[in-house]
């Protein structure tokens, strides 16, 4: 899967995905857009959804919970816990979608912020899943659309700063 | 890898392992042995090591940190955060060995406690790793020895209760 700017790789037989995206801003700014609530709500989620931050403890062993709501008022909750957050460099956190029929389908996300020349950033997100089936269900759910929409909004936000 | 009682499966080309072990005690007891500090220190770790619990917050989004010390006084730290803990049923938590040359090699553990007939328990631990290399390094480090020693000590502890 490759959008003009966002590259998503899901190798056959593996229980992981990689999402690679470059941004025209320094790692410090891209990182802050991921951790400061007033910035995060401006870009994360589908184009026509709103986002509410129920919890966001930006520290090692801190909890997070986000709620996305569509135009019809349907809400989708996500939560997890942060194993490590290292300013402008890395975030490692668990992720669970609350709308699944069964609890326990938790994944682990590794976000790496890498400085590029000309004050640009390469963000690589690796997600490891409990199973290949969990990974493929996430892809089928329209994850790519959500990621592409979000990062386009983030481009827009970063261009204003 | 198969000990008389402990079965460890690491399929070629996968970034996960499964550890399966049955215990002659109810899930409630086996679970408590994993979450109550005074019980945990009696069985977790190699036969000739001692264990100290630096942190153990037995709750969703709670942190943990354990320190194992060998006969020569060398210490080995491990830490992580609990995504979910569900009494006598399940624990989902991150895991990181502090002695690696580089931070960030975090894995995600799923412990499932299943009731068997005759007040027995089947404990299935799935661990998913950042890479196949991370998994294989963990196996090479002598993980099997640690798991087998630990579970034999746990058998002993459970038989006294």
From TrEMBL, chains A, B:
Q: Which domain of life is it from?
A: Bacteria
The chain positions of domain Activator of Hsp90 ATPase homologue 1/2-like C-terminal read 24-158
Lineage of producing organism:
Bacteria, Pseudomonadati, Bacteroidota, Sphingobacteriia, Sphingobacteriales
Which protein is depicted?
Answer: SRPBCC family protein
Membership in a protein family: Belongs to the AHA1 family.
């Amino acid at each position: 899967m490759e959008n003009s700017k966002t590259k998503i790789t899901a190798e056959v037989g593996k229980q992981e995905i990689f999402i690679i995206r470059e941004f025209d801003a320094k790692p410090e700014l891209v990182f802050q857009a991921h951790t400061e609530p007033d910035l995060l709500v401006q870009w994360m989620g589908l184009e026509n959804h709103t986002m509410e931050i129920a919890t966001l403890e930006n520290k090692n062993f801190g909890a997070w919970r986000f709620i996305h709501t569509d135009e019809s008022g349907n809400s989708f909750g996500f939560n997890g816990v942060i194993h490590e957050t290292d300013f402008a460099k890395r975030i490692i956190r668990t992720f669970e979608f609350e709308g699944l029929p069964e609890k326990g389908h938790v994944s682990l996300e590794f976000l790496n912020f890498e400085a590029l020349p000309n004050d640009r950033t390469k963000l690589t997100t690796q997600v490891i899943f409990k199973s290949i089936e969990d990974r493929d269900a996430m892809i089928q759910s329209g994850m790519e659309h959500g990621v592409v929409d979000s990062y386009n909004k983030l481009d827009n936000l970063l261009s204003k700063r």
